[in-house]
Amino acid sequence: MKLTxxxxxxxxxxxxxxxxxxxxxxxxxxxxATVAPGTANDEYSKITPLKKLPVLxxxxxxxxxxxxxxxxxxxxxxxxxxxxxxxxxxxxxxxDHSLLNGMLDSMLLCRYEKMxxxxxxxxxxxxxxxxxxxxxxxxxxxxxxxxxxDLRSTSRRSASSACWATPxxxxxxxAGARPIPSSxxxxxxxxxxxx
Length: 195
Ligand SMILES: N[C@@H](CCC(=O)N[C@@H](CS)C(=O)NCC(=O)O)C(=O)O
Known about the structure:
Layout: E1 2-5, H1 10-21, E2 29-32, H2 42-47, E3 55-57, E4 63-64, H3 67-77, H4 88-115, H5 124-143, H6 147-153, H7 159-164
Parallel strand pairs: 1-2
Antiparallel strand pairs: 1-3, 3-4
The chain binds glutathione.
Glutathione (GSH) binds near residues 10 and 54.
């Protein structure tokens, strides 16, 4: 099978880690691809209309996307060691995976905002909001989900005041979260060959 990838893509890197963990890395041929928002790529659109990488192309031609589903597929053909088949650990793990993917989405959007968006049209509040989501996600992985525990023990506070309506900087989720960096860290451009 073939995986479209870029060395700079965090999504492709995640799939590679899963493949290594499952002992499948030698069964995958890595095909470099270049994708970027605002750039037509008719050849790649034939593989996936979303024009995103990674995509897994099976030997008989079927295409599996996106990275979340590819990891699940690899887990299945690799003996299921990474993702439990049922029970609370399964749903915790899938939720963690969704959270991670959302964080990568947010960081990539920030990267594109700085790298690809025409100069002068940067939306700073949107950019800051996405960085905050990424940092809050890291705090969640670090500290665990405090939000629902707080909701149960804080009887007089409504759900919205305890969690969703709280500014992220004051939210329990963000306790321990670092501030938004003033300059963009070296998040990938997801172009082949760039790091
Ligand atoms: N949800 C997708 C996201 C993949 C993604 O955003 N990949 C980036 C490269 S790191 C991409 O293809 N960007 C091109 C674009 O957004 O036009 C996944 O999990 O695979």
